[in-house]
C-alpha cells in the first residue's frame, strides 16, 4: 500500500541572528519563504542573500543551510509522498535537482502569508477527509506561487508597480509615476509590463477595478456611488456605463443576478 501524502508545516520566528549548525539534507521537498527580515540560503558552494518575499524550493536530499538576520520569520513546508497532480505543478518551476529561488511582491507576500496561516489552522484541525484536504490546500499554495512569483529582478520591480496600481484604484495612477517606481523609462516599463502580464498597464488597471467592483457588489451592501468612488470613478453614471460596456449589464443588475444565484444555491 502506497504511503499517504505527508505534510509538516510551521512558521519559525527569531528575534536575533541565527544559523543552522551545518549543512543538512532531508528526504522531503521543502518550500520555505522569508516572511520578514533578511536571511541567507547556502547550497553546493552557492550562497544567496534573502529578502522578505523570496521563496526557496529545496529538492529532497540536497545539502543546504539557512540563516536569519536580526528579527526574521520563515514559513516552512515539508512535503513527502507528493501526489502526481502536485508534482506536475512543481515541475513547472523547472528546478530539477537544484533549488529554485523565486520572489513575491509585497502584496502577494501578504496574501501568501494569509493563505499559509490558514493552512496551518487546517493542519491543526480535526478533518473528515484529512489527506484530500491537505492535497487540495497544498495544490492551491503551489498554484499561487506559480501564478504570482517572479525570478527576474526587473520583473519583480514591475510587480511592485502592479501592487501600487492595486493599492491606488481610487486615485488612479500615471504611467510616468509607475515607470519611475520601477526605475525604467516609460517605453521600457510598458514593454516589460506587457511581457509579464500580457496586457498594458491601463488594461491591468481596468481589470483590477472590475475585480474590486465585483467583489464589493457581491460581498457588501455598499451603495453603488460608494463603490464607484472606491475604485476611482467620480460619477456614478460613468461607473455604470463602464461596467455595462464590459459586462453587458449595469452594476445594479449584475448585483441582483449574483443575489439570485446565491438564493438558488442556498435554497
UniProtKB/TrEMBL annotation:
Pfam families on file: AraC_binding, HTH_18
Domain HTH araC/xylS-type span(s) in chain numbering: 159-257
Keywords attached to this entry: DNA-binding, Transcription, Transcription regulation
SMART domains found in the cross-reference section: HTH_ARAC (SM00342)
Gene3D superfamilies, per database record: Homeodomain-like, Jelly Rolls
Residues spanning the signal sequence: none
UniProt protein name: Helix-turn-helix domain-containing protein
Amino acid at each position: 500500500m502506497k504511503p499517504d501524502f505527508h505534510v509538516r508545516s510551521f512558521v519559525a520566528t527569531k528575534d536575533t541572528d541565527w544559523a543552522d549548525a551545518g549543512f543538512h539534507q532531508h528526504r522531503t521537498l521543502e518550500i520555505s519563504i522569508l516572511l520578514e527580515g533578511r536571511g541567507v540560503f547556502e547550497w553546493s558552494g552557492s550562497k544567496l542573500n534573502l529578502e522578505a518575499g523570496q521563496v526557496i524550493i529545496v529538492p529532497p536530499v540536497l545539502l543546504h543551510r539557512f540563516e536569519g538576520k536580526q528579527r526574521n520569520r520563515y514559513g516552512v513546508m515539508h512535503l513527502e509522498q507528493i501526489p502526481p497532480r502536485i508534482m506536475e505543478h512543481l515541475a513547472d518551476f523547472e528546478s530539477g535537482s537544484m533549488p529554485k529561488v523565486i520572489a513575491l511582491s509585497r502584496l502577494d507576500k501578504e496574501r501568501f502569508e494569509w493563505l499559509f496561516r490558514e493552512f496551518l489552522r487546517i493542519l491543526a484541525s480535526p478533518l473528515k477527509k484529512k489527506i484530500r484536504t491537505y492535497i487540495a490546500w497544498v495544490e492551491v499554495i503551489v498554484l499561487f506561487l506559480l501564478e504570482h512569483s517572479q525570478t527576474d529582478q526587473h520583473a519583480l520591480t514591475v510587480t511592485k508597480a502592479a501592487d501600487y496600481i492595486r493599492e491606488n484604484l481610487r486615485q488612479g495612477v500615471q504611467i510616468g509615476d509607475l515607470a519611475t517606481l520601477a526605475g525604467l523609462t516609460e517605453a521600457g516599463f510598458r514593454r516589460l509590463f506587457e511581457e509579464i502580464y500580457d496586457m498594458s498597464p491601463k488594461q491591468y488597471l481596468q481589470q483590477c477595478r472590475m475585480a474590486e467592483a465585483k467583489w464589493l457588489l457581491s460581498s457588501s451592501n455598499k451603495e453603488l456611488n460608494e463603490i464607484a468612488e472606491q475604485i476611482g470613478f467620480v460619477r456614478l453614471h460613468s461607473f455604470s456605463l463602464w461596467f455595462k460596456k464590459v459586462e453587458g449589464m449595469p452594476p445594479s443588475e449584475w448585483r441582483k443576478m449574483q443575489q439570485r444565484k446565491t438564493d438558488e444555491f442556498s435554497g
